[in-house]
Structures are given as C-alpha cells and as structure tokens.
Specification:
Elements (H helix, E strand, L loop, with lengths): L1 H4 L5 E9 L7 E9 L2 E9 L4 E3 L9 H4 L1 H4 L3 E7 L4 E9 L2 E9 L7 H11 L7 H6 L14 H22 L10 E6 L5 H12 L4 E7 L2 H14 L4 E5 L2 H6 L8 E5 L5 H11 L4 E5 L4 H6 L16 H22 L2 E7 L10 E7 L7 H14 L4 H6 L1
Parallel strand pairs: 8-9, 8-11, 9-10, 11-12
Antiparallel strand pairs: 1-2, 1-5, 2-3, 3-4, 5-6, 6-7, 12-14, 13-14
Helix pairs in contact: 6-7, 12-13
Bound molecules: S-adenosylmethionine.
Length: 393
C-alpha cells in the first residue's frame, strides 16, 4: 500500500494513530527520505508515557515490507504527508478482514526543511541523547556529563562530524554508489578513534552501513577501540595494530570513501596522505600535528638572503616550517587530482592544532600538472622537502 502510494515521492512523514484497545502503541511516526532509490527510515513509537526510537535499519526499497510490523498493528488512521499531497488512510478492522479507504487531500505540511535539520541534529552528538556512547568513548562521565578534560575533544569531534557528514552526503549521492553500498572509512593513526567511531555511530543511526578500518601503532588504544566497537555492536569496525604505511598498504578495500587522520604525529600525516592516494580515497580529512621533519631541514644558508630573518627566532622558524609543510602537502594532493584546501576546523582556543587539510577527488586534467611545478619551486626556494614528496618521488 505505502510502497505504491509513495512511488513518486522522495520524502514523507506518516503518522499512525487512533489505536484499538489491544494495540501496543498509541501512535507511531515514520519519517522517510529516498536517497539513490532507497528509503531511509526513522521510526518512533509512542505509548501513553514513553517514546521509543527504533534503531536505524538498512535502507529499503519496499516500504510495506519494512513497515509491516506497524501496518499489522491495529492503528486505524495513517496520515501520510508528502510535499505535493496528503494521503488519509482509514482502516476498519473487521472479523472478515481489514477495510481500507484512501483519500488524497492538499498538502498540510510545509516544514520539509525540518527533516534536514533533524538530520543535522542526528549528525551531532549531545550528552542528552548520546550519554551511553559518550561514556563508553571516555568523553563523558557515567551520568552523562562531558568530562571537563575532554570538553575540547568533544567540541572538535562535533565540528569534524559536520565536515565528515557533508562529505558523506556527497558520496551517498555519487552515481557510482548505491545507498546500500557501505561507506568505507580509514582512520590512520586513529588513537581512541574519537571521530571515526562517532562517525560510525551517527551514520548507523541514520541508516547507513559503515565499514571502519582504524590503524594505530599503539596496541593499548587499539584494544580500547575494539572494546568500544564490540560494546556498541559496530560489526563493520575493525582495528589494526601497526604502522599506517605497513598496515594500510596491505588493505584490500572495494573503495575508500573517506580517509581521516587527526593529529597523526609528524610524518605519520604524510604516511596517511600517501595511503589516501594509494587507496584513491574520495575524500581526505587530515588535521596535521607537529611538523618536525621540515623544520629539521631548514637552514639559513639554504634560503635566499631576504628570507633569512624568518629563521632567526624559534617561533617564526616553527610556524614557517608548518606553513611550508602543509602547503606542499596540499599542492601535492592538487597535483594528484584532488581539490585540496587548508582551513581552520575549530577556533584556536580549543586546540592549537586547528588546521584541516580537506581534499576531494576530481578528475585529473592538464591543469593538475601545474601543481607539481609549484611544489618543485617551493623545494627549490626553501631547500626543504616534506616526507610525502620524498615518498612519491
Ligand atoms: C595525537 S594522537 C591522535 C589520535 C587520534 N587521531 C585523535 O585525534 O584523537 C596520534 C596517534 O597516532 C599514532 N601514530 C603515530 N605515528 C604512527 C604511525 N606511523 N603509524 C600508526 N600510528 C601512528 C599514535 O600512536 C597516536 O595514537
């Protein structure tokens, strides 16, 4: 019934009401959105006193099948709202069977953007709604308060989730992917995987299937990640102990939608970027950490005379080293066919390491070769090379 009724709609809200006495629910509300041909559903059922949100399921094609458990309940009225019209479904339950009448009326719901803001809310973590997850992640206390020592980390995670979510949407609407294909994320130097496990959590809540591969050389953090993934039932999350390059290059993935590397120390960021290139990641979100490698190479006698004052004080030398490293990394990605930019992902008061290198894959064309020349010019001028350049040369 609903599958056919909504065959031309892309979004709907269905409110089931008017229960018979034997019905377990007083009301149920289903919000549906069709992406790449499949419906993602959010289902909430109500009793007199409580509301229950069903865990997100796989995207579905057949609404009647996916909602059979609600359609079988003795709720006599279903108001199905879409942007173009409302469908009023009335059902009477008789011993001979169920009689159904359907009426089409002009649309009554105008707030369709509300669904989009619901999605935004679902993408953010809040202590009110996600206390259990935040506790398991060590971000909150057992009673659901964000730990003061983790407040900045919590903020960073929510900021990055917004960035990651917009990239995920881009991947979901990509022609090569169907909504049912899993979203593959690699977290290089994952540590406790604050961002990537949060991403799995919010995406699964939204009905997306996620495969996460976390890599870190520290066995203790990997043990923690495995435990959280197991407790949360994230079947698609796997964690490996080892170096980013060693583990990463042994991965056999169908595709890589997103490579994340947050504050991977020094040249581990270059390892992560190199891995992103090897895996042909659609999107890379990389927040660099310390930049010792390039600073180590900087010598007054190797730069032009006019630039030497920049190397006089430790702080200017350090910041110049950071800028050179990240600019070279960005332009190498541009040379390799990525639309790459450096930006701040959160204000400085929450972390000194607030730079994000964001890169999205696009077709390689003649123009990309220009960026190789740009990196070569920087190397020539400053007498330094970032590790990513050395790996690719
Ligand atoms: C500063 S922590 C950041 C952790 C996490 N990404 C976050 O943002 O919370 C850096 C992590 O990178 C890991 N790491 C550093 N170099 C690595 C390498 N070459 N291969 C794998 N892991 C590495 C460290 O063990 C550490 O857990």
């Amino acid at each position: 019934m609903l599958t056919e009724l909504l065959s031309t709609a892309d979004v709907f809200v269905a409110t089931f009401s008017r229960p018979l006495k034997n019905c377990r629910w007083t009301k149920a509300v289903v919000k549906g959105e069709r992406i790449s041909g499949l419906w993602r559903l959010r289902i909430e059922c109500f009793t007199e006193r409580q509301a229950f949100t069903e865990p997100a399921s796989e995207p579905v094609a057949d609404l009647d099948r996916a909602l059979a458990h609600l359609l079988n309940e003795s709720l006599r009225q279903i108001l199905v709202q879409t942007p173009s019209q409302d469908h009023h479904i009335l059902r009477s339950f008789k011993s001979s069977g169920v009689q159904v009448t359907v009426k089409q009326l002009p649309p009554t719901r105008s707030a369709w953007e509300q669904l989009a803001s619901d999605r935004t809310k679902q993408r953010a973590l809040t202590p009110e709604h996600d206390a259990d997850f935040l506790y398991r992640m060590d971000l909150a206390t057992e009673d659901g308060r964000i730990k003061s020592s983790m407040a900045d980390k919590f903020r960073q995670v929510n900021h990055m989730l917004q960035r990651a979510a917009s990239s995920e949407q881009r991947a979901a609407s990509s022609e090569q992917r169907t909504a049912s294909s899993e979203f593959v994320v690699v977290d290089a130097g994952c540590g406790k995987a604050y961002l990537s496990l949060s991403l799995v959590y919010v995406m699964e809540r939204m009905g997306r299937k996620v495969r996460l591969i976390g890599i870190d050389s520290n066995p203790k953090v990997i043990e923690h990640c495995r435990q959280v993934a197991q407790e949360m039932g994230f079947a698609g999350a796997e964690f490996h102990v080892g170096g980013i390059s060693e583990v990463g290059k042994g991965l056999a993935l169908p595709h890589c939608d997103m490579l994340i590397a947050l504050h991977a120390c020094n040249t581990a960021t270059d390892d992560a970027l190199e891995l992103g290139l090897v895996l042909e990641a659609d999107v890379m979100l990389v927040a660099p950490c310390c930049h010792h490698e390039v600073q180590r190479q900087m010598r007054k006698e190797r730069v032009p005379e006019w630039a030497r004052p920049l190397l006089d004080d430790g702080i200017t030398k350090e910041r110049l080293g950071d800028l050179l490293t990240d600019t070279m990394r960005r332009d190498i990605l541009r040379w390799k066919g990525y639309d790459a930019h450096l930006e701040e992902f959160i204000s400085l008061e929450h972390t000194q390491k607030n730079v994000l290198l964001k890169a999205e894959k696009k077709p390689i064309d003649d123009a990309t070769a220009h960026w190789r020349a740009s990196v070569e010019a920087m190397i020539e001028a400053w007498g330094v090379q970032c590790a990513l350049w050395q790996r690719l040369s």
